[in-house]
Design brief:
534 residues, alpha+beta, ten-stranded mixed sheet, eight-stranded mixed sheet, binds flavin-adenine dinucleotide
Length: 534
Amino acid sequence: MRGAAPMHSTPLLTDRSQLIARLQESPEFDLLVIGGGATGLSVALDAACRGHRVALLEAHDFAEGSSSRATKLLHGGVRYLAQGNLALVREALRERSAMLRNAPHLASPLAFVMPSYHFGEQSFHHLGLWLYDALAGAASLGKAQGLSRLQALQALPTLRTDGLKGGVRFWDGQFDDARLALAIARTAAERGALLINRMKVDGLLSEAGRVCGVQCIDSMSGQRHTLKAGCVVNATGVWVDEMRAIDGRMAQRETRAILSPSQGVHLVLDPEWLSGEHAVLVPKTSDGRVLFAVPWLGKVVLGTTDTARKDLSLEPRPLRAEIDFLLAEASRYFTRPPQRSDVRSAWVGLRPLVDAAGEGAHPSRSISREHTVMVSPSALVSVTGGKWTTCRAMAEDVIACCEQAGLLEARAAGETRNLPLVGGRGESPHAIALSQPPGLHLYGDEALHVQALEGADQMLAPGLSEAMVRFAIRHEYALTVADVLSRRSRLLFLDARSAHDLAPRVASIIQTELGCDPQLEAFRRLARQYLDLP
Ligand SMILES: Cc1cc2nc3c(=O)[nH]c(=O)nc-3n(C[C@H](O)[C@H](O)[C@H](O)COP(=O)(O)OP(=O)(O)OC[C@H]3O[C@@H](n4cnc5c(N)ncnc54)[C@H](O)[C@@H]3O)c2cc1C
C-alpha cells in the first residue's frame, strides 16, 4: 500500500498494541522522524508519498508542542510584508491556498479588518494590503477593500468608536491546528508510515561515525526500543538543540545552540467580544507588535505576546505582564474592556525561532521566521523554524536535503501540494467556517463514520459527542483525557472550566475503550492552570 493512492473508505484503526507490534516486527526504515508537530508530520507525509519506509516518533502527543498553540492563521504574514520579506510572504500565500484546498473541513478563509484611528493611516494600510493580495496572485482570497467608519463598525460592532476613521478589510485563512496535525498524521499512516505518540527518543545510534537509528522509550509501558534508519530527521521544534547536543556528544563534537525561543500567550473570550464574523488585526500595538482578535470555533482568540524564553516547558506559564498587556491593548480597541474574569482559557506556545546570527541577545521579533535545515557531520538532519502555514514546503526542503546528502534515495515528489488530507476528500456535507462553534463538520467526509459509532446522539458538551470521543480513541491515536479534550476536541483551549468538569466522563470512556489509566488528575490540574491567570 506504500505510496499508493488512498483506498480506505473506512478510517484506519490506531490501536497502540498493533502499532508497537509493527515496530518490533520490522524495526528498519528508510527515514525516521523525531517529533510529531506540524514539521515532522509533514516530513513523514511527504516521504511516505514518495514510497519510502517511514517511522515517526513523538515523545508526547501529536501537536502537543507548539503545533497546537498557534494563533491558527494560515497567512503570508502582513508583518513580514512590512519587513520587506516578499519571498517569504509569497511562498506562505501559496501554501495558504494548498492548506485551504487539501483540508477544507479544517481550514477556511477569514475576513480581517485593520481599523484606522489616525489620518493617513488607512491609505497606507490599504496600499500594503493591496500589495499583500497582489503577491497572492491566483491564490488571492479576495481584494483588500477600504471601509468607511460606518462600514468598519458594521463589520465590527464592538470596536471603539471615538477617533475611528475607517479601516481596511482583507482576507487570510484560519484553521484548527491540532486537528490538522492529526489529519496529516493519519494521511501519512494511510500511505504506509508508522507513527507512534508517547514514544520519546533518548539516544541516537551510530555506525562508522554516522547516525543510523535511535533508541526510544514508550512512556505508556516503559518498554525500550531500538530502531534503525538510513536517514534520521530531528524535527523537535524548540527542542531541536537537545537532539543536536546528543548527536554532538556521541561524535565528541561541540554544538552551538541555534534556537532562541519566544513565548506567545493567547486569551480566549466569549463571542460577544467581537460579535460578528470578522477578525481584527491591530498592526502596531503600544510596543510595536501586532495584535489579533480572531473568531475561532465559536469563541474569540486574543493574542499574542513575544517574550524571549530559555526554559523549554511543554506547558509554559503566561507571565503576569503578558496578560496585562493583552487586556490593556484589547481595552484600547473595544468598547468594553475585557477583565481577567472574562478569560475562558489562556494557553501559551513557544515559537521555534532560528537565531541565524548566533546572537542570542537579539529581540525575537528581529529573528527569522523562516526555517533552517542542516545536516550534521554525523548525518543527523535537523529542521526547525518556519511556521505552520509553510510546513508542507518545509517538508519538501527537508527531503531534498536528505537526498542531496545521499541519505535517502531520490524519488519523484508525491505531490503533497494537491493531496487532500483525511476528511477532506469528496464533498463534505458540513462545510462550515472555522469561526463557527465546533461540530461534526470538522470531520469532513468522515462525519458518517463518527455518526455510526455508539453514543452519536449523546452530547457531552456543545459540538462534542460520546461518539467523537470513541472516534478519537479508535482512529485518532488518543490515549489520555488530555489527548481528547486538548487536541481532538479543543475544549480545553476554548473553555477550560467546561473541559475540567467534563473530564471524568471522558476518562470513563477511555477506560472502557482502552483499559488504561486515562490520566484524569493530570488533566484536571492542567485545566486549572489554563484558568488560573497570574
Ligand atoms: C504563539 C504562537 C503563535 C503562532 N501562530 C502561528 C500562526 O498563526 N500561523 C502559523 O503559520 N504559524 C504560527 N506559529 C508557528 C507554528 O505554530 C510553529 O512554527 C509550528 O507549530 C512548529 O512546528 P514544529 O513541528 O516544528 O514544532 P512542535 O509543534 O513543537 O513539534 C515538535 C515535537 O517534537 C516533540 N519532541 C521533542 N523532543 C522529542 C524527543 N526527544 N522524542 C520525540 N519527540 C520529541 C515534541 O513533543 C513536539 O511535539 C505560532 C507559534 C506560536 C508559538
